[in-house]
């Protein structure tokens, strides 16, 4: 009997050991640990669901055929929640300038300023950032990249937090930007001249940092030019890579000892040269065999005899068209926030209504580093004075691009209504600068929205009907269709220059809706109210090639359940 009891105790002990092992596996072995602080704007979403409401008198349309930009006024957690439905995996680049948490009463958590005496200052900041960055990650395309600017107060914590959310293997590097050349004097501390821009990819295998064009005049090298174009360096063909790494680039090149002529093939009187250094290490050539033959035909490769034997050189030509990868140190005067941030705002407003605006050139270069395409969608959910929107429009002006932006900001101290929106409006429509000169507008379109809420304490029919009616603007944002061409209590139809959206509030109106779109040749995205998850495909069988059907509000509720679980 004692043996049986002993055996049972041993089995229980082994079970408990296995349980503890599994618990330990779940616990962090390395990384950030902080005390999570509940946030009011997050907690309220358990009973109220965010939606968007358009502020129609703030819309700006200069060309219906151009992309539509968005400005969303409201807490960025709520804005990101809405975008999690409307723009999931649609964003190419995210640029944000979050609170630096300096302890100088510039940032609020739960409506109270966080100062240097707050013992939970860093925990509050991490709680705040984690919730928003998790939502932001889901908005990025698989090739998307995020850039976050920060100073030394939270730079170390931000790096570790982003390692957790985006993956340490997706870290693309940190740029040190000299944004304050004169330096900020701090008692008993080093005068601060710089801040950081931290880059992460959603999937580094799919997309890394983009090279961007740097004009020869802005480079540190002195370019030379010949009949084949610009070049700036006589580069040794022998490279420091080991033979084992690229065995196909270890081969013989032949040199004539008198006139130093080069040949890929062995010729009488020529000397064999291998990529072996003076220590006898077998390395590789910097170009493959075909490229060397091409260089030889263009007379861009030659040999010289040195104390270490025959050396082979070639003209190095970086691709000026494809550009160069950005470096980790940006010290150009154009990155000064005083000269190209504060003064830009003074030129627009007559004074600087925002204390710490970014240099517009710093933001432009951060965007170009993330994606050099002219067709990208850029999100900034800490929009502040609107520099990101301004930067996107300037980039479009530079290269005739069609980039779009989404700006999100609260209206604390009227930053949305008195700074961000007027700045974007002036850049689109034009303004008079400090010298009273007329500055032509860059053109573009803008829709202004505010976050609003629908009471939704429980999933009952009445609340589902309410959410559907209040989600019309969300659906228009999702589809990019803002022009109402037909509306009634039963259904509405919106369009842009190439696409239509239909919203049906009563399934009994499907027949009338189909009549209304009968002569329209373009394709439709059709949203149909359903208490369940029925998309009524049978009702549209005869025009199924023309419509893409989605039930609402269930699709919206699925997103919110995932976020607020």
**Quaternary structure classification:** single chain
Integer average pLDDT: 89
State the low-pLDDT regions, or none. none
Q: Could you tell me the radius of gyration in angstroms?
A: 30 Å
| Number of domain units | 3
- What is the overall silhouette? globular
CATH topology of the largest domain: Rossmann fold
Please identify the structural class as seen in this structure.
Answer: alpha/beta
**Alpha carbon gap, first and last residue:** 50 Å
Largest sheet: 11 strands, mixed
Top-tier CATH class of the largest domain:
Alpha Beta
Present the secondary structure layout.
Elements lengths: L1 H25 L13 H4 L4 E7 L5 E2 L6 E6 L2 H11 L4 E6 L7 E6 L2 E4 L5 H19 E11 L4 H13 L3 E8 L5 E3 L2 E4 L1 E8 L22 E3 L2 E3 L1 E4 L1 E2 L13 E3 L6 E2 L7 E3 L10 E2 L3 H9 L3 E6 L2 E8 L12 E2 L6 H13 L10 H11 L6 E4 L6 H13 L4 E6 L5 H15 E3 L5 E3 L4 E11 L5 H10 L1 H8 L3 E5 L3 E5 L4 E5 L5 H7 L7 E6 L17 E6 L1 H11 L1
Helix pairs in contact: 3-4, 3-12, 4-5, 8-9, 9-10
Concise account of the structure shown:
With 565 residues, this protein is α/β, with parallel strands linked by helices. The chain contains 14 helices and 32 strands. A hairpin with a 5-residue loop joins strand 25 and strand 26.
Describe the protein's architecture and organization:
With 565 residues, the protein is of the alpha/beta class. The chain folds into 3 domains: 275 residues, 3-Layer(aba) Sandwich (Rossmann fold); 101 residues, no CATH class; 107 residues, no CATH class. It is 30% helix and 28% strand. The chain has 14 helices and 32 strands.
